[in-house]
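Predicting holo structure, 2'-deoxycytidine-5'-monophosphate bound.
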Amino acid sequence: MIRTNKIIAIDGYSSCGKSTLAKALATKLRYLYVDSGAMYRAVTLHLIRVARPIEDEEGIAEELENINLDFEVKSGENRIFLNGEDVSEEIRQMYVSDLVSEVSAIKAVRVAMVAQQQKLGKRLDIVMDGRDIGTTVFPDADLKIFMTADPKIRAERRYLELKNKGENITLEEVFENLAHRDYIDTTREESPLIRADDAIILDNTNLNEEEQLQFVLDRL
Ligand code: DC
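Done. Tokens:
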């Protein structure tokens, strides 16, 4: 069947500003914004809560049956619900970030998340950000952007964001977490983070939010 809705895929390294750009684009174009990373984070939070060890892939595959994810836009903010509970803030905590890449590398987790993401992209105009959107989830996306930025700048941006939220953390810890996640995300077996051949590279080390938005709009 020929798809008539529009899909924009934004992939890239951790803390590159993918979600900021994706949100701005979705608002400008009146598309739905889907943060696929939030889904992996919610699954991770659930597994932490039920104390499932990461090594227990079979158990995790079974546990996925007990996970229900919902999305809502409330006062312009995207919220994610894990079995009915709004976990939008909790999933950004460092203890979740520390495990999320390991959880996202598990095949059963990826298969389940990709299926949900593809369902969302069947009829709606959407902007989705993540790691494998242009390669695996929507290889036929209308526009693919691959974001990158200097790792030091990325760590500083994320550090300030977490500090502003009151997290007790050092810049080194943030830098280490990003480096660790980039490593796992790019080297895992299941749909690793790589640039799709037809994705346009956007290095935003020296670009402000408006310039990034314009960069994408110019390519639509
Ligand atoms: O975008 P984020 O930092 O919130 O994503 C959290 C983790 O989820 C990231 O380290 C890798 C994983 N992820 C993924 O494997 N595939 C996606 N499409 C999105 C995120």
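The longest helix spans residues 171-187.
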